[in-house]
Every structure is written in structure tokens, then in C-alpha cells.
């Protein structure tokens, strides 16, 4: 019997009633992205837990920094504020936010930040939900970016438009950056079960994405290949998704110099360990905003300053074929 009966929705979301056919459709979609078994180094490989009978050997949290590594260690390594400004720019495509992690900054009329929203929600989820129940997508938008979203705002000739205004210039619901997709995340891990050249350990090994300048590609590549070289089969813990792993509140101070409250971070979608929408704002009963706070002694002028303190995770799974020991 396969390890898993079917794939759940990201963070086990229930945007439709239990029993809706959509949940089987989503499982079928995820299954279509994963081969039954992709062979890797030393007998390991990448597998579909809904297709193969396996015994769980353990879980592996593949974790990385949400802020784009290439923008802070290469292009602007001597000017962090320039890096923050760059990554916050181009809200219409969020093309600089390339770590499976995107955010949107809300400002008041004076230009001061009042809220930053961070997401790891998948565009494929919304595309498939739209095909099944358009109103459900409209309802989610209205609950996340405010009332007033109409069905006509979200499509072009009936096709769901992930670059609609409510998900770009006027708000954020899910990923829009070109490589931030479930398909790319699966491909990254699947292709990492084979190294380009043999090596004795992770210092020698050269996995397919080890030279990438992002944080996620080399991290996932090394972690997945390390498991494959142990002869283990690798997949994802269900529910499959990219999640916000945690956030570091240290160093954020109020205008009077005292620490800001950790309670100002709010989980909006998902749950601890599987957060997909996180908001940061100062409660209305205070007479100051996020833009009045300091982080590391600097005023918070960009969402990227907070993003640098957030980690992202893929929950990996290591297993053996049932009856086999490693």
C-alpha cells in the first residue's frame, strides 16, 4: 500500500466545503507533477508517496532565508538599503523576490509603512480553484485584500490572471514571480537526487543547483542529495507546499527604544510550521506605525528589512521501500 492515499491542499486549507471534488482534483494535479520514482545517486531517488509503498525514515526541514541572497551578497553587498529598495521595487512582477517568498508593502499618504504582508501561496492553487469555483477565489481575495474585488477583476477572457491588480499593484494574495511555483519547487528537489560529479561529502559534491546565487537552490540541492546518497528515497511531507518557517522579532524597537511586541506578527493563512500568509503591523491603539519602528538601529523604510528576518521551509521526507533497511 502506498505511503499516502492522496495529497492534501497546502496547509490543509479548506476554501470549499469538505467533500468537494476540488480536493481530489488538487491531489491529482500534485501527483501529475511527480514521477512515481526518479532514480538518484547510490540507490536513492525522488518518489511519489501516493504511488510507492515506503517506510518513513525521517523528516528533513529544508530551510533558507526569505530575502533574496543574490541581492545582498553580490549586487549590493556594500549597501543594504539599496538592496532593500531594489527588492521592494517592481510590484507589478516582484521579479527580484526569487526565494519562493514574496511580500507587499502598504504605506500611508506620507509614504510611511503601515503594514507588510508576506506570502508563500502557490499560483497553481488559485488557477485550479478558479477552474472549479470562481466565486471561491473571489471570496478569498475579498477576505485578504479587502472588499470590492469583483470576478471581472481576476481574469482575461475567462482565464485566471495571476497578474491582476489585486495581486500586484493593489495587494498580494500569492506568488507572481516567474520561478516561484510549485512545479519549480518540485523540479528543484527532484533534480537534486543526482549530483553533477561524485564527491566524498557535501564539501566535494556538486549538485545541479549548487552554483545558484539564491539561498534556496543550493540549500535544497545539498540537503536532498545528501539523503539520496544515503540510499534514501526523498519526497515532501504532506501537505505539500512552501511555508514560512519562522520570523525573528529581535532588534525591532518602538520609537521609545523598547522592544516591539512579537504579537504584531499575525498568521492570516496556514498555521505554525505551515504559514502561508503573515502580516506585520502596529495595532491601531498605538500612535505610530511600522515606519516609525527601527530594526537594527535603522528606521524601517522597506519591507525587505523585515523579510531578511524571515525563514522559508520545504518539509522534506526521507523513506525506504517497505521491507528494505538502510
Summarize the structure.
The protein is of the alpha+beta class and 326 residues long.
Comma- or semicolon-separated keywords:
alpha+beta; 8 helices; 24% strand; single chain; 6-stranded mixed sheet; globular
Q: Assess the beta-strand content as a share of residues.
A: 15-25%
What is the helix content? 10-25%
Q: What integer value in Å does the Rg equal? A: 21 Å
Global geometry: globular
State the end-to-end distance: 20 Å
Oligomer: single chain
- Overall domain count: 1
Number of DSSP-assigned strands = 15
Number of H/I helices: 8
Query: Major sheet, described briefly?
Result: 6 strands, mixed
Order of helices and strands: HEEEHHEEHHEEHHEEEEEEEHE
Unreliable parts: none
Structural class: alpha+beta
What's the rounded overall pLDDT mean?
94
